[in-house]
Amino acid sequence: MNVESALWRAIAVFRGVSLCYAAVLIVRNDAGYARPWAAWPVLVVMVLWTAFTIHAYRLAAWRGDERRRRALAVADLVIPALCLLATGFVEYQANLFEGRANLTVSWVAAPVMVWALMGGVRGGLVAATVLAVPDLALRGLYADHVSASTVNGIVLLYMVGAVIGYMARLALDSEARLARAIAVETATRERERLARDIHDSVLQVLALVQRRGGEAGGEAAELGRLAGEQEAALRTLIGAPRPEEISGSGDTDLRALLTAHTGARIQVSAPATPVTLPGPAAREVAAAVSAALDNVERHCPPETSVWILLEDDGDRVTVSVRDDGPGIPEGRMAEAVSSGRLGLDQSIRGRVRDLGGTVEITTAPGAGTDLELTIPRPRRS
């Protein structure tokens, strides 16, 4: 049973116990009512509504019908409010003036708990207000002032809404974080198991092909080089955390996206701690880096090496992509834009610009190319 189910069960128990308390007071005060016969239909309504809501909320939760549960919550405010107002017909004016308990007493706190569970502190306070207004209006019909007992009851109603709302949200958030931690641990264990299996088979074969290909030379050497690249990429893949495993807040660890490019000719350096960005922003940065690597693949010799450096400066994230290729000849970038080849301008600069960042390109013939992508980290509200 999860936390939410336990809370719903606790509300159902409270509803039943508070109904019994209200019934005891009605029986005890029966002779002191102005219209004692009218108190019993109210009690019947309270009994029937208690039984109905306990079953209806459980059924709505089982079906996952949130719309039905919201409709029940609205009705759960209306029915107790009407039962509360019925006190004005049953009770003597003098008793109301003195602050005598209404027919529902603490039974009306159950709907406040429901709204607090569903809507947090705000929902609990709204429900408390909806039920406090009829009580104040009822007693205001017969008195020039509100008794201390009435004020205490209303204050307790607000406290129930605020405390239950806060604790419910805290408990549900804690349960969600625990579930994410368990999922991460489970995924990590599975990845470690796969890593052991792959290491005992695929990685060893790729390493053997790389070594033997290098010894044989010729076309076999090229095959060995490709096997080495795949071995490095596979080791990174099975060892790196998935982006969605890092945070449950909607952020993505940029390290996991960039280290996927690691290979025989591509080295990635990143901090030991997560470098998080909002998911869409992280994916756009990763796409810009992929576009830069594609440019290296198309325009540089096959033996060109690439270094990717990820830095976290707190309020901004910087990614540098540097290669030791022939560099970009002067005027080539302007020529590419004018001829409609927009890879650098749109795939890299455009993406980073949309994120509010900048791209600096340092290049010279024979000295390689260095792209520095700087992306500001969005401020948390």
TrEMBL record:
Q: Which SUPFAM superfamilies match?
A: ATPase domain of HSP90 chaperone/DNA topoisomerase II/histidine kinase
Q: Which domain of life is it from?
A: Bacteria
- Histidine kinase/HSP90-like ATPase domain sequence ranges: 280-379
Q: Which UniProt key words apply to this protein?
A: Kinase, Membrane, Transferase, Transmembrane, Transmembrane helix, Two-component regulatory system
Pfam families, per database record: DUF5931, HATPase_c
Q: Where are the transmembrane segments?
A: 7-27, 39-60, 72-92, 112-134, 146-168
Q: InterPro entries annotated for this entry?
A: DUF5931, HATPase_C_sf, HATPase_dom, Sensor_HK_TwoCompSys
Q: Entry's PANTHER family? A: NITRATE/NITRITE SENSOR PROTEIN NARX-RELATED, OXYGEN SENSOR HISTIDINE KINASE NREB
What is the name attached to this protein's record? DUF5931 domain-containing protein
Lineage here is: Bacteria, Bacillati, Actinomycetota, Actinomycetes, Streptosporangiales
